[in-house]
Amino acid sequence: MATVDKKLLKRLKLLYVEDDANVRNELSNLLSNFFEIVYTADDGKSGLELYKEKQNDIDVIIADINMPNLTGIEMLEEIRVFDKNIPVIFATAYSDNEFLIEAIKLKVFEYIIKPIDIRKLMIVLSDLATVLYNDFLLKQQNKELKKYKDILYSNNIVVRTNKNMKISFVNDLFCEITGFDKKELIGKELSVLKSKDTDSKVYKKLYNSVLNNKQFSGQLKNITKEGSYYIASTNVISTLNDAGEVTGCLIIQKDETKEVNKRREVQFSLIKDKSEIFIKSKENNAEL
Fold it and tell me: Among 28, 65, 75, 280, which one is most buried in terms of CB atoms within 10 A?
């Protein structure tokens, strides 16, 4: 028998639908050694009812095609009404093109000719287990990415642009800090946010970095709707499509307005103190 990853198969629960009791008992006993749980049904109708009952607890279906009450094809047609993705393997004594066409339409993962070659079946099941495990990992990664995205968006100003550097998205924190409504800015050139105190060369450098897929980092002074400003530590990265072409950019900003103003106040106070000391020193020297 082909080598199979038993750990991957043990993660899965199987529904096996077969009207021949001897075949069903023999194969289900064998599959029980590999799968966590093996549910069985003796025809298409009972298979459909069992799947409706245990839908969230079944990962794979193996079914005969030629069965009473409902054929395997008819059972799967009913299942596909409410579940488009459950992988199904058909076992059939036929190789009729009509069955194959229907199987393709119903997105059948694989079909196996009876009498079932156990070696081939286990290879198919092993391949399917790998596919399902990779799908599981991808879903987990997407969940993690969503968590990171939510944290990022809630604690930072986020702006996205298209490849023409026109704003395509701003997050809630951006609107809260700047006073702008999202609709006011979507489609506008990114540079409309530039404060008059900011050198135009800074934005030219930012644009060139994006178009050349290079990261831009720096401190930007941008305007608010009321005509004031905010100062932000800014990181900009290019966004790419599947072909590696630049589609725009993602801008992450940390509002540092209060911190910058505090530093300026401290610096101003120090300068003022030094000036006063210098003046007093000159007065003292004059008296001497």
Answer: 75
The percentage of residues in the chain with a pLDDT greater than 90, rounded to a whole number, is 53
Tokens representing 104 are 């393709």
Alpha carbon separation from 156 to 116, 180, 200 (Å, rounded): 58, 16, 24
Q: Are 93 and 66 in contact (CB under 8 A)?
A: yes
Q: Which two tokens stand for residue 205?
A: 């450098």
Pairwise CA distance, residues 165 & 201, whole Å: 15
pTM of the full structure:
0.61
Tokens of 237: 């990265």
Helix (H) or strand (E) holding 75: helix 72-82
d(CA 29, CA 38): 9
The per-residue pLDDT for range 235-263, each reduced to its tens digit, is 999 999 988 999 999 999 998 877 655 65
Q: Which two tokens stand for residue 239?
A: 């966004």
DSSP assignment letter at 192: G
Contact residues for 165 (Cβ-Cβ < 8 A; gap 6+):
189, 190, 191, 207, 210, 248, 249
Is the Cβ–Cβ distance between 22 and 139 less than 8 Å? no
Give the mean pLDDT of 27-45.
93
Amino acid at 169: F
Confidence band for 114, pLDDT divided at 50, 70 and 90 = confident
Q: How far apart are CA 109 and CA 102, in angstroms?
A: 12
φ, ψ dihedrals at 21, nearest 5°: -60, -40
Q: Please compute the mean of the pLDDT values over residues 120-143 and round it to a whole number.
A: 90
The alpha carbon torsion through 279, 281, 286, 288 (nearest 10 deg) reads 160
Looking up tokens 């951006």, which residue turns up? 174
